[in-house]
Amino acid sequence: MNGIQQQWDDFHRCVERRDVIFYYVGYFSQTIIAAMADAVKLRAEHTGAVAVTRRKLFSSFIEMTQNIVHYSADSYDKDGIAEAGMRHGAVFISLTNERYYLHCSNPVNAVVAEKLREKLEHLRSLTIDEIKLEYKEMLRSETPPDSKGAGLGFLTMARDASEPLEFEFSPPAADGTSMFYLRATI
To answer: Does the 21-185 domain belong in CATH 3.40.50.1480?
Structure first.
């Protein structure tokens, strides 16, 4: 056996060894996110996740994908015109020892990278009680002017995660963008 089937079998074995339950790389839009969300819900049920874990997994997944749509520096261009809400990135979920690991990555420009770094370093400095308090305060406040959403995304993930959010930025490429990597443990 060789060729395409062999490549598929090799990839499938790799996925199984890493307990990958969902993987997508490509362009993200609200329609694509809705379809992926349905798949993630089904996979979480299939793996036997309890209701509270499924809720946390789902809400963190949605926040990660929304961050890609809002902040990815790589937008889909059709005939030289950027399509609204079509941004490139990747997301995957793995399950190891009854813990879910949500990963996402996407390119970001330097200004966005610095803002993300500040937000995430701040969150990593907080206790879970402080995160919950900040979450409640954010619910009552106005949307921050630099936010493309309600400003709750990272707070939601940090609140639902069982460990502090982990993140990295690659060194800037020639075009000034860096790859942003984020991981949440549920």
So the answer is: no
Question: CA-CA distance, 96 to 16, in Å (whole number)?
Answer: 11
Residue 135: both structure tokens together: 């979450």
Q: Report yes or no: 116 and 180 within 8 Å, Cβ to Cβ.
A: yes
| CB-CB neighbours of 23 under 10 Å | 14
Do the Cβ atoms of 82 and 75 come closer than 8 Å?
A: yes
The token pair that represents 155 in the structure block: 């707070």
User: What is the tens place of the pLDDT at every residue in 4-28?
Assistant: 788 778 777 767 777 888 999 999 9
Least Cα distance to 185 among 170, 157, 163, 169 occurs for 163
Alpha helix stretches (DSSP H) within 2-106: 4-17, 30-46, 51-71
Indicate the pTM of the whole model. 0.85
Nearest 10 degrees: Cα torsion 93, 24, 20, 167 = -40
Q: Provide the residue type at 29 as one letter.
A: S
Strands in the chain per DSSP E: 20-28, 75-78, 81-96, 99-108, 166-169, 178-185
Residue 162 in tokens: 């069982």
